[in-house]
């Protein structure tokens, strides 16, 4: 078959070694997933194996679908008959068939995380436990951790595994909660995500005939991204493969990034012990990336002590150097990335889908999204809602909307009882009906609520309207940021989120802070004359209402590094390389944690095929303050041979060069002066009557004033699609190319 001739000798060996246990340990981009794909085709096509007898487990559904499509291309429709999917999807399917053996009906429900938390919330309440200590998400993550280690509620109390003092203190009651939670799930004929794996283990342990059946069925078992399996998953594969021993696992210890969720890198090491006649294949040639990218990635991972020796190389070209870009602020970073995409795309005739932007935490997408929108670049966020669609952001925005416009019914519905203030659904319904029947605004109804509501609801509503009124009063005197901060605090939203100490809770809290930061930047922006809350909301509404071209596949991909595993893109931007952000302050408690962060950086850089950009901002708004940010230690660790530091700021949106001493790799090691001072020292002060003109008729030879660059002469105006640009020679700042859709210019 010609598909075999496209493999290197080691890859070919891995494909053709079909009988007996096989482990492929290989670096990023060395063709692990490709080998798995071709191996399946080979088994069916050359070895005559029935596709129904092949089970392949992937990390995401997306990966499974892609693999299936590729096999289909190689061998046709037969490919569809193989068992392929994530652990959860494959074993949910099996549990449906076998449910009866576990006392479940086959139509059992699968609870998602929200369902699970809501159930835990009720149980904690019933048991009269403190719901500030026994937070649903904390309780759930403890239960989930136990299940992934295969610790049942019966065994939980004697399980020695304890990570923290908090955990130790919670333990006695946790056992009880775990027990009741399982009983209630069972009564509701429901399983949560972790049960799907846990119960599969129970099934195979207690029902040898069932195990036998699946051992016979799956003569060939394959696992991609094996380094990120947890104990529960590991044991399932081990049991299934026990008879035929035709198990092939594929992984890269350098890319293990899910330890915080119970994945265990030891599974790779144990594998050799479990299968004494294990055959191991190493793949060391990288086909994905340029030499510069491969060398850079190698230099990153070399800093980790815990790793298996690998020598990754590539025959590909050197390619362009890795570009290191520093931005003055997070917004500037967003603009820098967006402009680079815009320019490179036009220069090299690329598609949006050739680009990916990777970040450490979801909240970083905000500045990037805004910059991309402003430049009309279509994008999609994978595995996370777009910033302004997130629940906590919508909640706070709803408050702000309602303060500005107390007839806003949708906003009212969102906030009237959030955070909880004892206004039940029935009362809300009555209010809405009254507003509808009398055709009067919500505000009028709720300020006269005593005429048709009674008791606690009335008092609570009065408190609510008093609060909203006080916000509205403040709005007359204060700017958008001051009002929004006040609302976030006094509504109780911040406290509510602050008290949730889980990773999700922290994320939500950070997101709300990030919204406040955005408002602060809006208020601080010299170009925004009207700093009122109303003006800000309008600006955002225009942003979010923009058509996002949902059916368009040609989009720039934005996602966390965790979500990018296994994928590849021609151009990759890894953003926010700053201390405390990446490596993340929250996740770093030990050397192991630092090494996991570093593996994450390795995963990020190895997604790039042709060009890799690493960016960091010198300042970032966090917690409503402009913080100076140190460049990430990961940047300092890079081998400078392959790197080009782009010192020049983004000229098309009018940047400046940050003054300071350059250290290794172009970084300033010492404390820097506050960036804002740096700007104001150089920047032009706009004339008192400065007002941006309509630039539709801007033409060569006109004199203009820019709020930052001062006076200049238009040299050229050009149209490129929807983006009109003007080249302007400024008296004090030299030549700049500005995008007219957002340059503020006064025609003099
Ligand atoms: P990761 O560790 O990121 O999951 P991987 O080891 O699974 O990477 P693949 O995604 O399978 O790597 O392959 C990386 C790229 O290299 C793909 O574009 C693949 O098509 C290409 N590739 C792999 N092997 C070869 C080969 N022998 N000849 C040409 N291209 C190859
Ligand atoms: Mg892969």
Quick recap:
Keywords: ATP-binding, DNA-binding, Helicase, Hydrolase, Isomerase, Nucleotide-binding. Belongs to the helicase family. UvrD subfamily. This protein has 748 residues and is α/β, with parallel strands linked by helices.
Largest sheet: 8 strands, mixed
Weakly predicted, low-confidence segments: 544-551, 648-681
Q: How many DSSP helices?
A: 28
Assembly status: single chain
Q: Give me the secondary-structure category.
A: alpha/beta
Indicate the radius of gyration in whole angstroms.
29 Å
Compute the separation of the termini in Å: 72 Å
Percent of residues in helices? 40-55%
Organism: Lunatimonas lonarensis
Family: Belongs to the helicase family. UvrD subfamily.
Keywords: ATP-binding, DNA-binding, Helicase, Hydrolase, Isomerase, Nucleotide-binding
GO molecular function: 3'-5' DNA helicase activity; ATP binding; ATP hydrolysis activity; DNA binding
Describe this structure in words.
With about 750 residues, the chain is an alpha/beta fold. It is about 45% helix and about 15% strand. The strands form 4 sheets. Strands 9, 10, 11, 12, 13, 14, 15 and 16 form an 8-stranded mixed β-sheet that branches. Strands 3-2-6-7-1-8 form a 6-stranded parallel β-sheet, with helices on both faces. Strands 20-19-18-17-21 form a 5-stranded antiparallel β-sheet, with no helix packed on it. Helix 17 crosses helix 18 (about 410-415) and helix 22 (about 480-490) crosses helix 25 (about 535-545). The model is unreliable at about 545-550 and about 650-680 (pLDDT under 50). The structure holds adenosine-5'-triphosphate and magnesium ion (MG). Adenosine-5'-triphosphate binds near residues 8, 26, 566, 568 and 606.
